Recover the amino acids of this structure.
């Protein structure tokens, strides 16, 4: 067996198939370009990679390890899929479901499970063509990972791909924008949280989450009702949100800070700042934006009482956009400098402002992960206040 990649997915495959041969760009001379052998492509390797382009029979780890006799629920979309997946697992774990995929546990370690909830990335979907979910939940799709997919159209196509192979016995819940798509699956479309809640008889007044988590909760409850006919308000309200996503905390002076390091694209940041629109916002923005057009973000931010503290590799790009939209921006380049600037601004007095990290960018230009970035953010605030 051949596997492209040497990361988490590839190593998990090799644990199951000890004879699997792993390749990356350093192994071009050893790679048989003429082989018709099935080749598992790790999610992180884009379609324009030379080895991928010369692979005649690429498959995903989903194709390798799943079979259509298993009961699977897949969750995808640009933002909210991790939270929705975690909420759904919280609701269904007592029904014998296991949880994994993009959320952390490689599929290789779950292959023997009969019932699975899988957070599913567009990367995995691009290479998957043999297996399909019993229930597919698709959250909204906004520009992201365009460096990998090439165009927004290709990104959307990857997210919509399962619908083409789903059967009449399967169910898909997707945004109304895609209501005309061709699929055999039973199709439910939704405009917003209220719309999908009403369709399934869910009373959102009994749910203790605000947007954007409210929609995640409702979609998890929809999938639960489709599987078990249960609507469990007490159980969903007992769910605890993971760190680094709109995580609020105060410093010793009572100033409110928000760790939203998981906001790695512009839509996530737009949804985050909307929550605090009536307040003055000190926003730490920047990192690796993956080449996405940031104008829509600045179109939104120009309506706010906001100061931007720019960090990361796209600082100069953010500076140019702030001038274009007449927004105040302080070029800090590093997270440490940005936090220090905000600390000085709020020093010795409680401010009626929101001080938030919601970078609209990936973290790998300066950090190991969004988790590392979030932890550093909190550490810097708690030091020398």
């Amino acid at each position: 067996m051949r596997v492209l990649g040497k990361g988490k997915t590839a190593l998990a495959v090799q644990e199951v198939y000890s004879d699997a041969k792993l390749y990356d760009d350093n192994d071009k001379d050893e790679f048989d370009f003429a082989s018709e052998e099935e080749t598992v492509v790790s999610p992180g390797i884009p379609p324009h990679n030379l080895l991928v382009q010369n692979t005649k029979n690429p498959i995903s780890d989903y194709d390798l390890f799943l079979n259509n006799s298993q009961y699977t629920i897949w969750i995808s979309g640009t933002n909210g899929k991790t939270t929705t997946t975690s909420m759904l697992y919280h609701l269904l774990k007592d029904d014998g479901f296991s949880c994994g995929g993009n959320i952390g546990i490689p599929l290789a370690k779950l292959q023997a499970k009969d019932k699975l909830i899988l957070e599913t990335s567009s990367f995995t979907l691009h290479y998957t063509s043999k297996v399909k979910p019993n229930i597919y939940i698709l959250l909204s799709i906004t520009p992201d990972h365009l460096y990998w997919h090439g165009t927004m159209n290709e990104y959307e196509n990857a997210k919509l791909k399962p619908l083409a192979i789903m059967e009449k016995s399967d169910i898909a819940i997707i945004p109304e924008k895609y209501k005309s798509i061709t699929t055999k699956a039973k199709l439910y479309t939704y405009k917003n949280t209220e719309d999908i809640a009403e369709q399934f008889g869910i009373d959102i007044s009994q749910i203790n989450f605000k947007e954007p988590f409210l929609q995640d909760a409702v979609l998890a409850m929809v999938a639960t009702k489709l599987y078990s006919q249960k609507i469990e308000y007490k159980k969903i309200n007992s769910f605890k949100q993971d760190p680094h996503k709109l995580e609020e905390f105060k410093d010793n002076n009572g100033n409110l800070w928000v760790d939203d390091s998981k906001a790695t694209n512009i839509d996530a940041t737009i949804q985050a700042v909307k929550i605090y629109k009536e307040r003055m916002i000190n926003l730490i923005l920047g990192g690796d934006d993956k080449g996405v057009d940031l104008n829509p973000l600045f179109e939104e931010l120009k309506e706010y009482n906001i100061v931007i503290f720019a960090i990361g590799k796209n600082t100069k790009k953010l500076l140019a956009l702030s001038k274009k939209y007449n927004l105040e921006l302080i070029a800090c380049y590093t997270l440490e400098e940005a936090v220090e600037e905000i600390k000085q601004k709020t020093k010795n007095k409680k401010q009626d402002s929101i001080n938030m990290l919601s970078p609209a960018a990936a973290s790998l230009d300066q950090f190991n992960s969004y988790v590392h970035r979030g932890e550093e953010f909190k550490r810097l605030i708690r030091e020398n206040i």
User: Anything to note?
Assistant: The first helix runs from residue 8 to 16. The chain has a mean pLDDT of 92. The longest strand covers residues 71-76.
